[in-house]
Design goal:
The chain folds into 2 domains: 182 residues, Glucose Oxidase, domain 1 (3-Layer(bba) Sandwich), CATH 3.50.30; 72 residues, no CATH class. Helices cover 38% and strands 25% of the residues. It contains 10 helices and 15 strands. Strands 1, 2, 4, 5, 6, 7, 9, 12, 13, 14 and 15 form an 11-stranded mixed sheet that branches. A two-stranded parallel ribbon has the order 3-8. Strands 10-11 form a two-stranded antiparallel ribbon. Helix 5 links the parallel strand 6 and strand 7. Helix 1 runs parallel beside helix 6. It is elongated, with a radius of gyration of 20 Å.
Length: 268
Amino acid sequence: MRRAEIKNYLNEIQNKISVYSISSSLGLIKGDLPTEPVYMMAGNIVGKSAAGFAKTFNASEGIGINAFENPDEDDFVVVASDTQRVIWGGIGSSMIQNKKGRGVIVDGGMIGVEAAKGLIIPTYYRYASSATHNHIYKCHEDCEVTLDNGRFSCGVSVSPGDIIVADREGIVIIEPENLEEVIGNARYVEVIAQFVWGVHGGRDGFSRLKDIPEYYEFWKMKGRLPDVDEVNAYLEYYKKLIEDPKTREDVRRTSKNIFGRVLPVPEI
């Protein structure tokens, strides 16, 4: 798919699809996830998640000034390091937001976290620092990078143009050629969530069921919300769609990995 076509998917993801729905549709289980949080988060998520094109940098020697300057609209900046130096600053996140970027992942230290907290895009980072190594240079750009470097079991490579989806609970990397299939399955999970909310949402139940047209008109005619048995029958139907062995085997291969739970930055 071309970048313009993928952008339509990114907008849908940002508005309607969570990392949980993607990871559930991929069949990721507890053993696939790290046992400890991997990143902390500064900034905010507008909608369900943040989604963008990976724009990769390797900044092992310090802060790469081109990582601030070169990303484009809809890019999700990924700055990697194999040294765990301070490799990012909050002003960089502000510059990415001004360029209409989608977010930032910093596989190392970050200064100026406070500057990133009020932004409408998220910045994920490993640790905060009040000092840098005072080395600002032009780092390697548009290269395959490895996040985690073996410190957790979920170490994963990110290539330029990969699709990154992130929220307050996790980050998932999807190869562009698999995006349509992955999101198609994630929609089922979102439908199930909406259905459950519709059933248990009280007075708001029917408005939530509008997201599932094939059921909304049926229950509107009945003048009531479905009971437990009817809910279970519906969930079983979608469960079969998601858990079909061939579908799951194909879809599990389409995601590089999931980073697990991301801690929000504590309020001070």
